[in-house]
Amino acid sequence: MTELPAPGVRSEVGRLRTVMLHRPGNELRRLTPRNNDALLFDGLPWVDRAQAEHDAFADALRGRGVEVLYLSELLTETLHDPEARQVAIDHTMTDLRLGDTLRRYLVDLAADQGPDELAEIMMAGLRNDEISNTGSLVAALHAPDDFLIDPLPNLLFTRDSSVWVGDHVTITALAMPARRRETQLTELIYQFHPRFRGVDRIHGWDKEFLEGGDVLALGEGVLAVGVGERTRPAGAERLARTAFVEGLAHTVLAVPIDQDRATMHLDTICTMVDRDAMVMYPNVAHRLGAVTIKLDEDGDLVIEPMEPFLDAAARAMGIDRLRLIDTGLDPVTAEREQWDDGNNTLAIEPRVAIAYERNVETNERLAAAGIEVIAISGSELGSGRGGPRCMSCPISRDSL
Ligand SMILES: NC(=[NH2+])NCCC[C@H](N)C(=O)O
């Protein structure tokens, strides 16, 4: 039997061995023009096509020797464990909106389901017209198509709901109400799935907001954490302190980003494509700043004054210069391609990255800079505003 690659991620570009994806499922069929904004989608994806695009993404990874794990399969396998089932049901049903009668009904209903059906309820949610008479005022007064358990269409973006820092896994705390429940699922998987037995977990879904799309492993022991619409300063501070104390990092850069949908995570602005090179949204490249955080001998955080991100990053990484791949685009093209996740690439080894094909100009500039671009189509996947990096959670990468 061949050994499974040991879990652990210490860079953005080390050879990718294992990744967790989520093939979009019925949770996407829940999106309507009335709920898509709250559920953080800019349109209504054609689900069959989104699945086909996602299968092509997974094939591109497998074609390069990457092991693809699916969140839904891990979840279903996890739900074979009676203790995990109990925790899953308790967490899913804590919502105060339900009231005691409906909660009791739903707990019983959930307890009767097999692992597949229970996983499906946890991911795709439950509508009022999908259950029968409950004797609950809450159910009686809700419209038939109201959700009693909300669907999780953003599970697709596995980047955000957990992030490996060295050999520890971070259970993140997602800022938007539509995504909060996602990290209860990732916590369940990492806590109970046999594959992850013995793995140390840090942070937690009940902690300060911290999203994986904001966390970049710039190099061994160096993290950059975007702080903006999603990750809050307190979330970045807790991650920094924990990473120092656990010996997972020696330097953390906190990087303020605009609190806008277009720049919701640091990885919508920049991603690494080589040991010492990034592709970055040109409209912000030279005004991005960073605050360097370290730990002193007394165990106190040392927080340095703000300086240009590229300088702070190079110093922390111990290199002369962090190369910026200048996409040299005019500001309008740059803005369009940034919106379509042109800067959100997934490196599978140094100088090889997966990117959306639609960002023609950004991809040309990457190729001209010596980066092999594996282009995938994302016309439907992109309607949730996330690219290849957002749609992947690396579990194992080789050290550089
Ligand atoms: N790492 C990322 N950039 N993730 C993108 C997440 C997109 C998702 N619809 C959201 O709004 O949360």
Automatic annotation (TrEMBL):
Protein name, per record: Arginine deiminase
Family recorded in the similarity comment? Belongs to the arginine deiminase family.
Looking at the keywords, is Transcription present? no
Q: From which residue to which does the signal peptide run?
A: none
Q: What enzyme category does the UniProt record give?
A: hydrolase
Show the GO MF annotations.
Answer: arginine deiminase activity
From the UniProt record, give the pathway where this protein acts: Amino-acid degradation; L-arginine degradation via ADI pathway; carbamoyl phosphate from L-arginine: step 1/2
Q: Name one Pfam family in it.
A: ADI
Where is the protein found, in the record's own terms? Cytoplasm
Show the catalytic activity: L-arginine + H2O = L-citrulline + NH4(+)
User: Which parts of the chain are coiled coil?
Assistant: none
Please list the residues that make up the active site. Answer: C390 (amidino-cysteine intermediate)
Q: What is its EC number?
A: 3.5.3.6
UniProt organism field: Micropruina glycogenica
Keyword set, alphabetical order: Arginine metabolism, Cytoplasm, Hydrolase
Query: Which InterPro entries does the annotation name?
Result: Arg_deiminase
Which domain of life does the UniProt lineage start with? Bacteria
Q: Name one GO cellular component term.
A: cytoplasm
Q: GO biological process: what's one of them?
A: L-arginine deiminase pathway
